[in-house]
Structures are given as C-alpha cells and as structure tokens.
Write a structure and sequence with these properties.
With 138 residues, the chain is of the alpha+beta class. Helix content is 24%, strand content 23%. The strands form three sheets. Strands 1-5-2 form a three-stranded antiparallel sheet. Strands 3-4 form a two-stranded antiparallel sheet.
C-alpha cells in the first residue's frame, strides 16, 4: 500500500479513498477464515500520528477492524525506515498493520528493521514474523 504525501492538495480525500478500498476488500473476504494484514509506505508514522485530523478515517478503520501497527513491538535499534542522506532526513513511514489478536495469542513473533548494505533503496526493509496455525513462521 502507498499513501499520499502530506501536503498533497487532496490528501484527506485520497486517504478516505484508500480506506474505502480496504473496507471493500474486507467485505469481499471471509474474515472468519482470513486475517487482514496491510503493509506499505504510509508516508506517516502510523503509531505516532493519531492527532492528524486528515487521518481520522484511517485510525477509525484500524479501530473498527481491530488492527494495530506491528512497529509497536519494534525489536530493532533502528528508529527509522526512510532516509535521505543528502537532506539528513530520517523518518518512520513504512509499517505492517496486523490484527491485535496476533499479539494477544502470541502469534506475533517479532518486528524488525533491516539495514543491509546491499539495499540501494532509501527505504529500509521491515519484517514482521508471525506464527502460523502450526507455529511455523509465515
């Protein structure tokens, strides 16, 4: 998933469209059999942007679907997922949204950020290890 950048003239409307799309997919899927997991570049720190009124519909979606950012359980010493060295900018904008039940049931094994020299992107990889039904990593 890719959210628009703040400052976009239609930012709030675009966030609403994305959330409506997520809800439409949720309505097509048997949520009793399948879990909702959302990963991507949110262009904002999901765990620290609750006060942004343009994102109210997004946080309502998380609440209504009982979801949370897995970054709340970050095991890494790295505190950013995006960097622009030339501008000296570092921010946490990439995340994986998971059902709260993963944490409660012990299915969430860990969340980590990988900074690898072979990665040529300005985004770092985020990893969320989740135990499957037979305790295998998914």
């Amino acid at each position: 998933m890719y959210f628009p950048c703040k400052g976009d003239p239609n930012y709030a409307a675009e966030v609403e469209i994305i959330c409506a799309f997520i809800l439409s997919v949720k309505d097509m899927v048997d949520v009793e059999r399948f879990d909702i997991v959302i990963a991507g570049d949110f262009n904002f720190d999901v765990k620290n942007s609750h006060s942004n009124s343009d994102l109210q519909v997004f946080y309502e979606l998380l609440h209504d679907c009982n979801l949370e950012p897995s970054s709340l359980y970050n095991d890494s010493d790295i505190a950013y997922t995006f960097h622009c060295d030339t501008r000296n900018v570092y921010s946490f904008i990439d995340d994986i949204i998971i059902p709260k039940s993963y944490r409660v049931q012990g299915s969430l094994l860990n969340f980590d950020i990988i900074d690898d020299v072979t990665n040529k992107s300005d985004h770092l990889a985020v990893i969320c290890n989740i135990a499957g039904k037979d305790n295998e990593n998914v």
